[in-house]
Amino acid sequence: MSATGEVSSQEYIQHHLTFWASGHQGGFWTWHIDSLLFSVGLGVLFLWLFRSVGKKATTGVPGKLQCVIEMIVEFVDSSVKETFHGRNKLIAPLALTIFVWVFMMNFMDMIPVDWLPQVAALIAGDHNQHLRVVPTADLNVTFSLALGVFGLIIYYSIKIKGISGFVKELTLQPFNVKAMIPVNFVLESVTLIAKPISLALRLFGNLYAGELIFILIALMYGANVAIAALGVTLHLGWLIFHILVITLQAFIFMMLTIVYLSMAHEDH
């Protein structure tokens, strides 16, 4: 499928915003196969890449790839040391995994919107084959990541403070008065639940908007020469700006995870 007049603009946009799904599109048991393939595939690529570089690492002059990975590891490690105030050997590897994995999923937005869907259509022999290549533009993926972090928040809150301490945190803050327990519980519950929701929606919103803008710019290529030239200029400008967006969103997701887990380790 292309934006050269063979389909309407609405059909073109709808095609690129439709997932390759199993079952009824939008149903509860629908699996977004493209999101699963790209997210899991990029996760495996991340593990393989860092493991292979780690095994070949030398104490001498590092190669370019080893140098880049060492810079990333040192950056994440310093971020954890500055932000996390407890003691937990899991936090640094978790932060590294989140930052690199989310960045790699975000980076898929830098691939021209028609390339991989057209390859998928050729392989499937169906020009209507759907394929979305940015996992973090799928709310299911961002909520899955956020729920994983939320589970760790609950786990460490109970592990560090105990069940009674965790219950007291929900019922005796911010007002340490028994009569205010219902109010405290509502306020603290909303604050607790808002953490994974904010993580998921922030990442999804930014990447969905970025994906949509690339699709709208791609529509301009099928217009006259002047508009197509403007589309190329806009595409390059948005591409450069979007590099900052995808990096920043990976960093924010990582930092908020560290902050939330640091709060979970605070024993009052």
Structural class: mainly alpha
Per DSSP E runs of 2 or more residues, the count of β-strands stands at 2
Main sheet specs: 2 strands, antiparallel
Please tell me how large the radius of gyration is: 22 Å
Low-pLDDT segments: 1-5
Main sheet: strand order = 1-2
Shape field: globular
Q: What distance separates the N and C termini?
A: 59 Å
Strand-residue proportion: under 5%
The average pLDDT value, as a whole number, equals 91
Task: Tell me the number of structural domains.
Answer: 1
- SSE order, as H and E? HEEHHHHHHH
Tally of alpha and pi helices? 8
Give the helix proportion (percent range): over 70%
Please give a handful of descriptors for the protein shown.
single chain; 268 residues; 2 strands; 71% helix; F0_ATP_A_sf; transport; ATP synthase subunit a; proton-transporting ATP synthase activity, rotational mechanism; hydrogen ion transport
How would the blueprint of this fold be written?
Blueprint (H helix, E strand, L loop, with lengths): L8 H8 L4 E2 L8 E2 H24 L7 H20 L7 H17 L7 H10 L14 H33 L9 H39 L5 H40 L4
Antiparallel strand pairs: 1-2
Helix pairs in contact: 1-7, 2-4, 3-4, 4-8, 6-7, 6-8, 7-8
Describe the protein in words.
The chain has 268 residues and is mainly alpha-helical. The protein has one domain. It is 71% helix and 1% strand. Strands 1-2 form a two-stranded antiparallel ribbon. A hairpin with an 8-residue loop joins β1 and β2. The longest helix has 40 residues. The termini are far apart. The N terminus is likely disordered.
